[in-house]
Amino acid sequence: MIDHFGFPVRDYRHSRAFYDRVLAPLGYSVQKEVTREMTGSSAHCGYGADGRPQFWIGDGDTREGSFHIAFAAKDRKAVDAFYAAALAAGARDNGAPGIRAHYHPNYYAAFVLDPDGHNIEAVCHLPG
């Protein structure tokens, strides 16, 4: 259903460094960067895998409020590594790694708040 999505961040360089660290354990990295010189207005980069950017951040006017996004993890160890990397990168805890059986018996996830206060999740749906 969704091809890609993005949102503006308050501090592009800081958020870029944050997402570089926290998405690496999940196998995602910057697949494309677009500079201010290229656009004439804003810089942004897209994270993903295999040359396909699907999650974009960029400088610009941020919006009020926060949102939630969940990134797919290949296994539970990747969820744990995401959580550890996020905390080391300055994220605030919003739910340590563990089973969330109210979603389904194998829903293993961790939640953190990014530099802009958004609820960022890594989730694995496979049995342990």
Automatic annotation (TrEMBL):
Superkingdom, natural source: Bacteria
InterPro entries: Glyas_Bleomycin-R_OHBP_Dase, Glyas_Fos-R_dOase_dom, VOC_core
Signal peptide start-end: none
Domain VOC: residue ranges: 1-125
This protein's name: VOC family protein
